[in-house]
Each structure stands twice: as C-alpha cells, then as structure tokens.
C-alpha cells in the first residue's frame, strides 16, 4: 500500500514538473541563448529523474563530442542523458504524439524520423548534419528499439552516416539502470507491449533505482564508412556493458 501511494506521489510530482517544463519552454526559451537553454535542460532533466525516485550516478568517462551513440532501454534514457550532457535527440516520429512529453521533445531540438519515404529520410539526415556542424551534440539510439539492458541489439548503420558527412567523431555511451541491490534493473525497460504509463508506473514503484551513463573514447569518422563505424561503436558499447560499472571519478 505504501509503495503504491509513494508511486502515485512520484507520478504527480513528475506531471507537475512536465507542466513546469512546458511553461519554461514556451515562455522562457525564446528569450535565452543556446548555452542557457542547455543549462536549463540539464537542470530540468535532473529534477524530472529525481521526481520519479531515480538517483543519478556521477558522469563517467570523457566529455561527449560530435554524435553520441548509446544503447536504448527506456523512454527515460533521453532525460538521463540530458541530465548529464544536454543533446539534440533523433527519435521516432511516434514520440511526437506522447502526451506533453512529445510536445516538449518537439520544442527542445528533437529531430523526428519520418517513415515512408526516402525524401523524409534525406531531410532528417540533412538536419542532423546541420546540427553536428553547428557544434550541437546529437544523440542517437542505433538499435532502433528498446531492450532489457543486458545486451546490445544490432545497430542500424544509416543513423551514423550523418557523423561521417559532418566530419565529426562518434562518442559511444553505455546506459545502465540498477536496483537497490546493485543488480541490473528491469523496471525501466520500455519493451514489448508495455505502454508508456505502465513503464512510468514501474519506475515509480521501484525501490532504490539508479541510472548511469558512461561515455567511452570518441571514434573518428574520417576515412571509414557507416557500416564499419557502426560495427565499431556496437562492439565497444557491448564490451563496456558486459564489464562491471566504471568507478572512475566524475567529469
């Protein structure tokens, strides 16, 4: 009973925080430069994660540059990354329809992948290249779907072509969720037929949930093709995921 009440309290706090975020984006963002917007995005994301009862590990690894490529477990991944390294995300077009979250994503640099035509894919690639050339950190989930977090699913290499076209490196990153016992947590996984609300409730019900992002040394994109770059990124992320969590000092 207590866990249920606590979970509903967490969800209520998160809903209020989403409304606060929408007001901030609508009223304050137009008045701010990019650096201040990103600082607000980082702070707001940290607060949202905390509202859901999730603790954040200190950032681990080098400062991400160019395109950040990560494994994908949960809708919460976006906010966990933004809490440490604010980025423009490449996301499926259906995210745009999520209640309130979709509106916030659409107004905070998210680049949506529209399905169904080569022209839409080309436009998405051009927007990503433009962001990367402007020095914006762009985050992608090349698996194209979410998993349980114990392994890395095959990558779609096409998403990494933009890094090659823009001439920027790729920063691999590993996302982990742990429960109160320190073992990999299943509650954040947004998989199968799980709805967004079911995933939110599972996170809010969890005890001692911790999220962490570990960045790995950047991979140069020059002189390679997207398949080799994708395979290299997949290999280093899978290797890091299989290893014990890093205990290095925060950035």
Core attributes:
Glycerol-3-phosphate (1)-acyltransferase, seven-stranded mixed β-sheet, alpha/beta, 13% strand, 251 residues
Fraction in helix:
40-55%
**Mean of the pLDDT scores?**
91
Q: How many structural units, i.e. domains?
A: 1
Spatially, the strands of the biggest sheet line up as 1-7-6-2-5-3-4
Which secondary-structure class do the elements indicate? alpha/beta
**For the record, what CATH class applies?**
Alpha Beta
Structural features, described:
With 251 residues, this protein is α/β, with parallel strands linked by helices. The chain has a single domain, classed as Glycerol-3-phosphate (1)-acyltransferase (3-Layer(aba) Sandwich). The chain is built from 8 helices and 7 strands. A 7-stranded mixed sheet has the order 1-7-6-2-5-3-4, sandwiched between helices. Helix 1 runs antiparallel to helix 2 and helix 1 (2-27) crosses helix 7.
Secondary structure layout plus pairing:
Elements: H1 2-27, H2 34-51, E1 55-56, E2 67-70, H3 77-82, E3 88-92, H4 101-106, E4 111-113, H5 118-133, E5 138-140, H6 161-166, E6 170-178, H7 196-205, E7 210-215, H8 226-242
Parallel strand pairs: 1-7, 2-5, 2-6, 3-4, 3-5
Antiparallel strand pairs: 6-7
């Amino acid at each position: 009973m207590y866990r249920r009440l606590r979970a509903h309290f967490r969800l209520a706090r998160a809903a209020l925080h989403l409304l606060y975020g929408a007001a901030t984006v609508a009223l304050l963002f137009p008045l701010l430069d990019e650096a201040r917007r990103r600082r607000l995005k980082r702070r707001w994301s940290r607060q949202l994660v905390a509202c859901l009862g999730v603790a954040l590990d200190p950032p681990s690894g080098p400062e991400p540059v160019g395109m950040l490529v990560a494994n994908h477990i949960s809708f919460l991944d976006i906010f966990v990354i933004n809490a440490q390294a604010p980025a423009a995300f490449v996301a499926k077009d259906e995210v745009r329809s999520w209640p309130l979250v979709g509106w916030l994503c659409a107004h905070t640099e998210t680049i949506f992948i529209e399905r169904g035509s080569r022209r839409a894919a080309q436009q998405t690639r051009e927007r990503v290249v433009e962001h990367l050339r402007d020095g914006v950190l762009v985050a992608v989930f090349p698996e194209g779907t979410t998993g349980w977090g114990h392994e890395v699913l095959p990558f779609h290499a096409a998403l990494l072509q933009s890094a090659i076209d823009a001439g920027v490196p790729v920063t691999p990153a590993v996302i982990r969720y742990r429960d109160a016992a320190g073992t990999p947590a299943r509650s954040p996984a947004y998989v199968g037929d799980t709805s967004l609300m079911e995933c939110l409730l599972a996170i809010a019900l969890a005890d001692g949930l911790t999220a962490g992002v570990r960045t790995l040394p950047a991979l140069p994109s020059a002189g390679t093709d997207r398949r080799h770059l994708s395979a290299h990124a997949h290999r280093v992320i899978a290797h890091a995921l299989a290893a014990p969590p890093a205990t290095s000092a925060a950035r």
